[in-house]
Amino acid sequence: MNSHRLPFWQLWNLSLGFFGVQIAYSLQSANISRIFATLGADPHDLSYFWILPPLMGMIVQPLVGKYSDKTWCRLGRRIPYLLVGSFVAILVMCLLPNAGSFGFAVGGAMIFGLVALMLLDTSINMAMQPFKMLVGDMVNEEQKGQAYSIQSFLCNAGSLVGYIFPFLFAWIGLSNTAPEGEIPDTVKYAFYIGAAILILCVLFTSVKVKEMPPKEYAEFHGIDPNVTTAEAPSMFALLKNAPNAFWTVGLVQFFCWAAFMYMWTYTNGAIADTVWDVTDVRSEGYQAAGNWVGILFAVQAVGSMLWALLIPKFKNIKTAYVVSLLLGAVGFASVYFIHDQYLLFVSFLLIGAAWAAMLAIPFTLLTNSLSGEHIGTYLGLFNGTICLPQIVAAACGGLLLKAVGGSQVNMFVVAGVLLVLGAVAVGLIKEKKAK
Questions:
Q1: What is the DSSP letter of 139?
Q2: What's 406's DSSP letter?
Q3: Which CATH topology does 18-222+234-428 take?
Q4: Is 205 in contact with 14 (CB distance < 8 Å)?
Q5: Measuring CA to CA, which residue among 308, 294, 309 is closest to residue 344?
Q6: Bridge partners, residue 364, by sequence
């Protein structure tokens, strides 16, 4: 691969749009359970609403990878998909928090919310995947660790902003309660402002980043430019010949993303119960807990940003992976024992260490094991190792919740055990360059 190095600000510009995309994603992850609980969903059914987002990601991201590998136009290779996904996302972000405001009955509001959620996650996935591919396309092997760390930093900065929006809007005086079945203004305006920031950031990256034309790309990656797309193998053939890192890192991913699925699903109910001592979703305490979830997730994002700066200091990337996941496991398990809203900051700072590793290390290990050919398709397929565990976790969430006694905070212990299993699985990863 070409040894050409990019200056820091070019690496920064490659991922700046991720800041806006992650605001949208964090608003979704912090508020979906709150939105559907407010619309009338039973706590034991909450995890089922979380099946749609990863399912759409599992379908959309491989297709974005496959077809963007073949796309060359005036706008570039990945950027056209980034723009389309972002424009759809901002439209849906204005509709989803109004699911309870259109006069539908409870069932109708649920269906509208589910359709909006499906479209939102489809568009977010379509906008998110090109950023990972741009790094794989344009950054040499030596700089990929730095490039994905920058992406991780911007991702967590976007999360921080998205998570605190509802709390901030409540602080400045917007209503944090609403009539039965409707979503509070604090959540609605968080989605509106997030949509505006998303499109500004994506447009910035689209203007600042100039993708390589086909000939230059082929030279950079050492690809035979005479190989036509018609000769390209199918996705199934690529999976069959995927490097060892694809599958072993994917196993670690399974445990990690299942753990975080339970955090996103059950944090609101868990801390409403253990800190505010309420379970009624119509109560002021439950909605206050909903705002505090945003603060805790913001603390997690801060912990993740700080830890992302330390990850490159480790001499061995797999050691960094293990340490990060074990710190996260301690953070998850500690939530069970804590009943003070401020002491929970410690738990979520530790959880942030695991999140930082999950955002940066798997893509570094994978892209370093790939040749430049079909990298978009492989990254799209690799997204299955993010989506599939979330689907499995969501499908099993209600049953697991019953198995651990019906208390949502118990699911944090389950999440901690999953991260320990992920740390053990890191030992199976072999760093080997693809042939």
A1: S
A2: S
A3: Growth Hormone; Chain: A; (1.20.1250)
A4: yes
A5: 294
A6: none
Task: Write the DSSP string, 212-225.
Answer: PPHHHHHHHHT--T
The one-letter amino acid code at 348 reads F
For residue 105, the number of C-alpha atoms closer than 13 Å in the C-beta half-sphere is 1
Name which residue leads in pLDDT, 234 or 412: 412
The SS3 of residue 76 is strand
Single-letter amino acid code for the residue at 97: P
Burial of 308 by CB count in 10 Å (0-12 exposed, 13-18 middle, 19+ buried)? buried
Q: How far is CA 421 from CA 110, 325, 337, 347, 416, in A?
A: 35, 9, 21, 19, 9
DSSP state string for 296-319? HHHHHHHHHHHHHHHGGGSSSHHH
358 backbone dihedrals φ, ψ, rounded to 5°:
-65, -30
* Residue 67 neighbours by CB distance under 10 Å: 14
User: 93 — phi, psi (to 5°)?
Assistant: -65, -25
152 in Cβ contact with 308 (< 8 Å): yes
Is 130:81 a contact under the CB 8 Å cutoff? yes
How far, CA to CA in Å, does 71 sit from each of 77, 140, 213, 218, 251? 5, 21, 11, 14, 31
d(CA 258, CA 188): 28
Residues 393 and 372: their CA atoms lie apart, in Å, by 33
Mean pLDDT of 107-136: 80
Contact 408, 401 (CB under 8 A): yes
For 379-423, the pLDDT digits (tens) are 777 778 888 898 899 888 889 999 998 889 999 999 999 999 999
Question: What is the C-alpha to C-alpha distance for residues 94 and 103, in angstroms, rounded to an integer?
Answer: 17
Q: Amino acid identity, residue 428? A: L
382/435 Cα distance (integer angstroms): 18
pLDDT band at 43 (very low <50, low <70, confident <90, very high): low
CA 73 from chain centre, in angstroms, equals: 28
Closest CA to 363 of 349, 351, 390, 381: 381
Domain boundaries, the chain: 18-222+234-428
| Residue from 269, 284, 196 nearest 32 by CA | 269
Structure tokens at 407: 């208390």
- From the list 17, 24, 29, 25, the residue with the least C-alpha distance to 154 is 17
**Sign of the C-alpha dihedral computed for residues 23, 29, 34 and 36 taken in this order:** positive
Question: Could you tell me the two tokens for 319?
Answer: 């050691």
Amino acid at 204: F
